[in-house]
Each structure stands twice: as structure tokens, then as C-alpha cells.
Prior knowledge:
Radius of gyration: 34 Å
Number of domains: 5
Strand content: 15-25%
Amino acid sequence: xxxxxxxxxxxxxxxDKFILIRDAELASYINEKGLISFxxxxxxxxxxxxxxxxxxDSKHKFLGLLIECSSTNRLIHSTNLTDxxxxxxxQIARVAENEVLSPEGTSGNxxxxxxxDLPKNDFxxxxxxxxxxxxxxxxxSIFVKRVDNAGTKDFTMWGLSGLQIAVFQRKDxxxxxxxxxxxTVDLYPNGWVRLSAxxxxxxxxxxxxxxxxxxxxxxxxxQKQFYLYGPQLxxxxxxxxYIPTDETQKLRGTDIAYIQDIYYQGNHQKKRQYIDxxxxxxxKFEQFNKQQISYWRNDISETLTLVENxxxxxxxxxxxxxxxxxxxxxxxxFITCSQLLTRFAREELVIKIIEYLENLLLGEQxxxxxxxxxxxALAKQNLMNEAIIxxxxxxxxxxxxxxxxxxxxxxxxxxxSYNICDDLYKIKLNPEEVREYLKxxxxxxxxxxxxxxxxxxxxxxxxxxxxxxxxxMRRDGIAIENLYINGYSCDxxxxxxxxxxxxTNYSWHLLNETRDFQQSIIETGYVYTLCPVTGKIIKxxxxxxxxxxxxxxxxxxxxxxxxxxxxxxxxxxxDGGKIGIYLPRLDLVIHWSITWGKKIDYxxxxxxxxxxxxxxGSVVKNYISTKEPKIITAIIGCYFNLGHYFxxxxxxxxxxxxxxxxxxxxxxxxxxxxxxDITEIFPEIPKEKITSVSDFQSTFSTILHNNYxxxxxxxxxxxxxxxxxxxxASMKKCSQSFLEKVEQSQKYFPLLWINLRQHNKxxxxxxxxxxxxxxxxxxxxxxxxxxxxxxxxxxxxxxKITALIPSNVKTYDATTCTMNETIYWAYSVDTYIAVxxxxxxxxxxxxxxxxxxxxxxxxxxQGVFWGEVREEGIPPIFIDKKYVFDQRNVPGIYQNYxxxxxxxxxxxxxxxxxxxxxxxxxxxxxxxxxxxIELNNWQLRLQEIKKKLK
Length: 950
């Protein structure tokens, strides 16, 4: 004791009352030189300011003892950016810079790289695959240093699917653009900065690279632009100290400190905290903390006295903390203190101690032993209720994620299940840990049936699969479905309904797939295919549905078949067609969809399917083994895009209705992207058949729990009957005052709809362009009126346009209308100018109005098939691509663009002249909109009468 007190006096602080613990392989801090340093577990971190301009006598400003919450760096190989886990995303090159000093003040080991933007007009990024799942706050950070006398570009961070997180200006690191809600810039010695950006999204993957201002697609300079070091991704709303990683993600535990009877817990703080401790010989402090921990472990008398005094004074919270820490550091001696245990029981503090122990970050085996020993000690004092509670709280020595994942997945994909321990199914797994394990261990083979190589054929033959059988499995058609159904059961005699013949002559090949397996599910309760080995016809009523990537992802369904082995038929995309098969035994994917084959990373897809299956293992097992009949369920509202909702999903329900099989559906599962009440559009659907899910994460398990056999009915045609139904349903949802306003608008001609767009793929000059069109049109048609349509964020655009046009032009603001009101407006206009996309759906496919469509090159290519979608439709006039100039500033197909307003105006005048003459674009006569709507209504009633007569 005397020696210990002398050390305390030496440090000019009462170190008897100081101790710090933290679990971590390595934790970083900033040393007195402003450089990154690392310490092992249970070591205090005294932090200095990294900024090179805040120094005194070559020492940086002292901040204090660092206390942080726990965090995980989810990016692997942060210490080696040349590793294959980092991928060059298009036109970029990486160079290991082993002569450049890192933020640690050292060099070598590939810790620092430089990036070169190659001389092509494209992205210049490196990326790492990360699966995020749900939407939450995340913070991405990296150390960056400009390469002097080289490139001139800015630095950027991205996520998947067009998420620009942040762009930082090269000159002064100012935030230029992006979805980041918060950014930080910390300066370090030797020209380094640490950039961080906090964002809220579910987008996967992380990208780092260069940008030309906000435009990350640009012509590369073929120059070294930046040095990079130490990337980090945290599921936090603040950046924390750097956590180095190798082949796995790394966790830094929370800091727990007791100083002068004050308890500090990093996880209680939202931000990092510095405790100002002066006059300490820092170089000796680390050694002292080790001695302090050793002392607490070997001499309990003083600590016992301290705890007893705290209880006597009624300072129960502090007593619990010190006793809990004592148990952690010296469980054997403290547990034997029967008198203290009895006192704790009298004050009803035992449960609080157990709760405290639960929150301590300990090694698993140490924690199990501690709980076991404490339970026995409580039982010896006849505190049996508390002993049982403690025993039940004891951490379970659970098998590894690897063992659980492999065993459950293996059982779920056997022809005949064998019984593994049911307790494995009860263990709650962390989805992120399962995903990470699968990402590291799984090695899939992916074969494109449209581009077979000799090696692919060898793999198929070695797996004893029949290539001819696989080729046949992709085929589509009513005749094939009838062959399957009757070939499976020779005496069936069933023929699928063919009341409605689907169009197979679309200009776009994807639309010609008839997806008749959907009809088989509804009429027979099964989906059929061939065994890829034997060619035997087999059927399934087991479905696994989820969205690939995130809530705005691709809807997909895995149908589980048992042939010579278990395999899955994968269907989905917005069109809902067959995509390929997956064989778990071989981890083999064979896909054939020309469209979706290029948009799906099958390794990510199968990892996600496996993850969902394993974490829902017990439910999956019950679902595939139950003898209870499955409930045929149509799922609606799966795709985020509004146009595809009306086109493919409501179009699919209309097809079922006109085929006379809508009533065969047992349940309708309404997913979050549903837009309208389908029972209003299809009153034939009883409300008791409707079930809803509030989020996509629960869809997978909801289907299994309720024994649903799911089909997503889709169609490539919008029929006249659907148009009438949507109109009638929307009109019923509009207020009387709104209907009267629309009725009054009919006195204007032309009644022009102008669709505005703000967030992406927008006409850059739409303010001046639309103003010019309206101004010129009003000179020839002074009785005209304009309806401005768009998302709420376009209201400012509308106001700027109205400020530029003649004041006598009547305008209507539809930017704040409900969807039902927007639909009703669309049926009431004469013509339109709209962006190719969801907004065009109301006018063209539903209301069947003549008008002009403009967009970037990618979307203008849809003009090939757009006019074919609507039954007896009036095709929009698509502006010729030669008049449109894309501004390649975002990835994918969402570039902004510009075009000459005069081109739009000239085409618009032609339409209005034809309307005046009463010319219909297809039948050489124009039907007045009011009479056309009435005609559609009568046609719908006639169909219902015919059905009743039959």
C-alpha cells in the first residue's frame, strides 16, 4: 500500500481512485506530435490536437483523457488499400506509396496509396462491398493528402445506386455537394487531413475517389490526385478514432473509467469526451494503470471498505459500480464476501449488480464464469431468486456463427431433413455477422446461359446437370404450363384460362415474356418446372420473397424445388419473369435473363438469401415441412417506381380479373410501395383478404409465419379496363371542391399539363424553357391554362416559371395534390409536356392523352416500346435524341440534360392543331375527353354484364 501511495503522490493525483478498462486489440489516439499512435486493451489514451498549427515548443495542444463509445470499422483491409477487397470502379489506378509518410509518421507496408484518374470520361473511384440493410445514420471517414504538382480534381465519397455522400474541394476541403448531413475536416501533420461524412441511407458499398466539382463522371487527367490512408465506416452519427482492420472488421470496446469517484462510460456519451487531467507524467501512466488493475485483483480490503462506506452513506449507484468492477477484476475474492452480499440483498441492490455485469464488455468465457460463480455465491446466502435470475442471465456458450450458419443452411437444403439440435434454431444471430461470414467464405460459380464458355459447359456436365433441361426451364408460355401441369398428373385434364391473349410482339424483347407460371400458381396452387438433372416434371408451393440490396431494390422470389437435389427457381425484377436457378449443393447459379443478369451481383444475392434463411431458420424449417395447405397470396407494392406499380402490378391484377381468376387468390399481401387502395380499384377483392406489412425487412418472415405461397402477378399491358377503374377510384377520393375546380378548368383551351422534375434526370433549362413555351403559346391561344405537376420539391421551379410568363395565363398548382387528385387532373387535360418516367404514366398509359415526352438519352430510348404498352394507346411524341445533350454528372441512367425548347414547342403546336381539327392519332377521329371517359365506363359495365350472363 505504501509503495502505491507514493506513486500516487508522484503523479500529483489520487490514483488510488483511478482505473480505466477497454476491450480492443488496438485502439488509436493522437500523440503529442499530432500523429496517430496505437495502444492495446485496458490502456488509457491521452489525446493531443492533431492540427499542425496549434503547437507550443513542438508539442501539440493537450486535450485530455479520451473516453469513447464502442464502434466497429466495417471496412476490411483498411491497412492495405492494395488488397483485392478494394476494387477499381472504372477508370482509376492505385499505386502503393511506401516512401510516403502516413498519418502515423511511418511508411511502408502498403498503408498509403495514391490514386490516378485515368484519361476516360467515367467514374474514377475505388470501392469496397458492404451490405448495409436498414436505413440508419452512418459515418464514413478517410485520411487524404493532396499530391502536389499533379492533379487538380476534388475528393469524393459515394454509396451504391447513385448515392453521392460528399464531395470535398481540393483547395480548402470545403464541402461542395452530396447527401451528407454532417461533415468534418481534421488537419494532421505532413499535409494529411481526415475527412468524414455522416449520412442516413440504406445504400450498400463505399466508394472513394475523385470528382470534378459535383460531377464525378469526367474526363480523367491521368494524374496522381490524392494519397489515401485508413478508411473507416461506422454505424454511428459521429466519427470516432481510427480503428485499423485486416481481413475482418474490428471492434473497439467502450472506455470505462473511474476517476475521483466519478464513473465515465463511453457508450453513455454520443460524442467523444476528453477528461482534463493535469500534471501527469504520461509516459508512466500506462504502467501505473496496469499496476492499478493488478492491485484491484490482488488486494480487496481497501475496495471492500470503500464499497461498504458507499452503502452506508446511501450512495447505492456508486456502490454497485465499484462492486461490479471489483467482481470483474477479482471475482473469486469478492464473491466470498458473504456479509457484503447480504447487505446488498437487504438494500435490493443485487439485481442492479447483475444488470451492471451484463453491460460489461468481457471475453465470453470470462463472463460465463463470472455469472456462474456469482450465482453460486448468491445461492449459498439463500438468495435463491436472485441466484436463478443471475443464472438465467448468464451468457450462453453458443456455437460460432460459422457452425450455426453451416448446419442450419445444410439442413434446410437436404432432400430429407436430418435432425440437428433444435437449440441451434433458438439462438438469435446477428444478421451482419452472418453476412460477413458468408462474404468471406462463400465461393460461388455463376454461369450466364446466354454466353456459355467451354469451362461453363464442363462445370454443368461435372455437376451431372442436363444443359438441355436447363435451357427448357427458361422457356415460357401457356402451352408449356399446361404440359407441366398435365405431365405431372396425367389424369388432370386442367387447362389454364386463355380468355385474354397476351401480346408477344412488343419491340422490347423483355415485354414478350408472358410469365404464365404466375397463372399456374393461382389456378393450381403450385409452380412447375423440370429437374435439371433428370428432366422429370416437379412442382413446388414454397416461396421466399425479399428485395435485393435495399428497400428501393429489385423484388425477387426464390421458389424451392426438390428434384434429384434441392434447387431454387429465381424470378423477379419489375417484370416478374424467370431469371435463373440456384443449386445450394454446388453453390452454382445459372442465369439467363438478358436484362437482370447484368444488374444483379449474384454473390451478394445468394449471401442475402442465405442470411435471411439462416436467421429465420426455425420458421423456414416449419414452412418447408408443414403439411398444412399453403395460402395462395398475391403480393402488391413491391417496386419503388410509380410507373411500374401501375404498369406491371395493377396491370397484373387487371389481367387476373379479365381472365376470371382474380377470385382464386386467397390473400393479397400489401407491401410498402403500394400507392392506392386496391379494393377501391378492384371492388371484387374483399377487404378481409387484405394483409399489409409495414416494412420490407419483415416481408420475408411474414410470408413464412403465415404459410403463404407468394406470387407477384405482373403484366406488360395497361388495358382500357384498368384505366377506367383507376379513374373511377381516384374520382371517389377527390373532394367536391376539387372536382368543381377541375370542371371549371374545362373552359380553357388548350389545358396544358407541364411536368417538372428537380432531384435527378431533370431538364436543366426547364425554368426558362417552359416559360418560353407558355409565353409563345399564349400569344396564339390566349384562353389557354397550365397545370404544373411534380413532386413537392418542384414548387420553387413553378414559382420561377410563373414569374416569367404573362399574368393573364391561368395556372394551377398540382405539385401538392394527392395522387388521386393528380390522376384526376391527368384525365382532364388536353395535352402535356412531361419527363419520360413515372409522371408520364398518368397522362399516357392511364389517361391516354396526346403529348410530348423529353428526357435524357437513356430514358428517350424507351420511346421504342412506350406507345405499345397502352391498349389502343396514343403514343407520346418523344423528342429526338439529337436535340438532347446529357450532362454526365451522376451514375447510371439518371443524368440531367438540356434541350432546345423550340423543338418541344413545334411538336406541341402540331398536337394542339390536331386537337382543334378533331384528329385522333390512330383512328383519324378525336373523341372528346368527357365522352371517352363515359365510353370506357360503359365498356367496363358491359364486361361485367357479360360475365354475369355466362
